Amino acid sequence: MKVQAKIFVTLKGSVLDPQGVAVTKALHAMKYEQVEDVRVGKYLEVVFDVENDSQAHELVAKMCDQLLTNPVIEKYTYELVEVLA
Amino acid sequence: MKVQAKIFVTLKGSVLDPQGVAVTKALHAMKYEQVEDVRVGKYLEVVFDVENDSQAHELVAKMCDQLLTNPVIEKYTYELVEVLA
Lengths: 85, 85
Description:
The structure is a homodimer. Chain A is an alpha+beta fold.
């Protein structure tokens, strides 16, 4: 089965997010003063072939730990959808 | 009401994604040969104060068009959740 994983990577809550601070300041300068906080992360769409659901979950976890995220400062969540032919 | 917008920004389908190509190659080099395609985008969490839902949708659309995305090459989707006190 062909699966698309939508992976959302964000900095852990305790880690300072300078890019988010910069975006917040830019929005304030543009008079969007109602904005309180911005956090910037990564969004990845990965398409792969696996036999079943549990293989898909395992593969995503391994790829995230080994390449796609930095487990020291980042956390991630993901959704899996089956890509139909 | 306090609202958190989760905004997913991706390159339009017809736009080459060199970062995604690089990640695909890196995964292949690490023996994840079942990976077919990777697209890399941005994920933003923006917290702001508005009066109602329609103001929230309007605000997100304006911020995305003016600062958070490049409408020429990127598209975005978003979800809104109310942040309870």
